[in-house]
Write a structure and sequence with these properties.
Layout lengths: L24 H8 L5 E2 L11 H10 L12 H10 L9 E4 L2 H12 L5 E4 L6 H8 L3 E4 L11 H7 L4 E7 L11 H10 L5 E5 L15 H5 L4 E6 L12 E4 L2 H7 L10 H11 L2 H25 L2 E2 L6 E5 L4 H10 L2 E2 L1 E2 L9 E4 L3 H15 L2
Parallel strand pairs: 1-11, 3-4, 3-5, 5-6, 6-7
Antiparallel strand pairs: 2-8, 7-8, 9-10, 10-13, 12-13
Helix pairs in contact: 2-10, 3-10, 4-5, 6-7, 11-13
The structure holds pyridoxal-5'-phosphate (PLP).
The site of pyridoxal-5'-phosphate has 13 residues, from helix 4.
Length: 371
């Protein structure tokens, strides 16, 4: 057979729109030649990791010469307890991060010819992973000043090939949430062959009264999957661990994609310990709330456009080219994330830090934008 090995490659896997994730601090330190840099580009926890999780890591470090548990039963039992027993261990699926869960969900439900619905500006992997499987992406953009979900628009786009509708609340990159009545309306109206995936990796930070997670829908046996992560509030991004919950039927089906020993010993033990660390979450959320208020005041004084956020970041629209802005911020020792590739043109997402980091960020903003 002639034509080279490429002839057996899947066209949907042709190298093109890869999702790479944000840059690392070491990479930027090396490139910029700076001694200190504040990394406000990946929505990590500025306080570090849950101390209970760190203690678990130290306790279990000597166990890494042995294989981990064959199953994730221990973590699923801990998750069931964390959700007050409302969900059974069989309703959870664990995975090597939130982003890996998006890949998992895509592989579980998408074939060539299927469709997903996203609402830009949105987290890029929903789209990239669906396209790798030959599925088509329908975009029903968020609308208006507050990035509302276009429920009618989504319902109109559903056809027999639609499999997944992605909602992100709080949303990355806008920081906005989807009010419960809008989600209620959508879920009441979707046909049986469609699953609503609610990505709630920033849920701990949401304060709005009409905010909801996926829990009430899953509890009412709706075709809903929630995506969660230990990377954000728990401060365990380097361990790569996340989970989903859904109806038992959907969770058990998705679990067929698991491989034995999928979660490593350290990640699983740290995640279990983190779930118990309510104090760390409280301290983190309180810090984010008070620093958010500080930043709103400072951003108002500078007069820069920004969106109020239900997450641990605030997205701004600087009055200059976003790439140039990002470079200038690095010169000032601050890493931020441009979100044009998420469909939020000209905007930049900035993680909320502690007071020291936020003051440095505001100083940099003033020196770049205020003449
Ligand atoms: C909306 C959203 N979903 C999922 C993830 C994935 O998080 P992780 O892969 O670190 O668990 C992120 C990370 O930035 C995110 O912003």
């Amino acid at each position: 057979m002639s034509g080279g090995i490429e002839q057996i490659f899947k066209t949907s896997l042709k190298p093109k729109s890869e999702y790479k994730g944000g840059k690392g601090k070491k990479e930027i330190l090396k490139k910029s030649g700076k001694k200190k840099i504040y990394k406000l580009s990946s929505n990590e926890n500025i306080l570090g990791s849950s101390p209970k999780a760190v203690h678990a890591l130290i306790t279990h470090i000597n166990a890494v010469s042995e294989y981990p548990d064959r199953t994730d039963q221990k973590l699923r039992t801990a998750l069931s307890k964390f959700y007050g027993g409302v969900l059974s261990p069989e309703q959870f699926v664990t995975c090597n991060s939130g982003v890996a869960m998006i890949d998992f969900i895509s592989r579980a439900f998408l074939n060539k010819g299927n469709e997903i619905i996203i609402s830009n500006p949105a987290f890029k992997p929903y789209q990239v992973f669906a396209q790798k499987l030959g599925a088509t992406v329908q975009d029903v953009p968020l609308v208006g000043k507050y990035f509302n979900l276009d429920v009618e628009g989504i319902l109109k786009k559903i056809n027999k090939n639609t499999r997944l509708i992605y909602l992100t609340t709080p949303n990355n990159p806008t920081g906005t949430h989807i009010p419960k009545p809008q989600i209620d309306k959508l879920i009441e109206s979707i046909p049986d062959h469609v699953i609503v995936v609610i990505d709630e990796v920033y849920f701990q930070f949401a304060q709005a009264e009409d905010y909801t997670t996926a829990l009430p829908y899953v509890d009412h046996d709706k075709n809903v999957i929630a995506i969660n992560s230990f990377s954000k509030a728990y401060g365990l991004a380097g361990l790569r661990i996340g989970y989903a919950y859904s109806t038992e039927k959907i969770a058990q089906y998705m679990s067929q994609l698991r491989v034995p020993f999928m979660l490593n010993t350290l990640s699983m033990e740290a995640a279990i310990a983190a779930l118990e660390d309510k104090e760390f979450i409280n301290i983190t959320v309180n810090l984010i709330n008070s620093e958010k208020r500080f930043l709103y005041r400072e951003l108002n004084k500078i007069g820069i456009k920004y969106w109020k956020s239900e997450a641990n970041f605030i997205t701004i629209k600087p009055d200059m080219d976003d790439k140039l802005f990002e470079e200038k911020m690095i010169e000032q020792g601050i890493m931020v994330r441009r979100v044009a590739s998420f469909g939020h043109l000209g905007c930049v997402r900035v993680t909320i830090g502690d007071r020291q980091a936020n003051r440095a960020y505001v100083r940099a903003l003033r020196s770049i934008l205020v003449s």
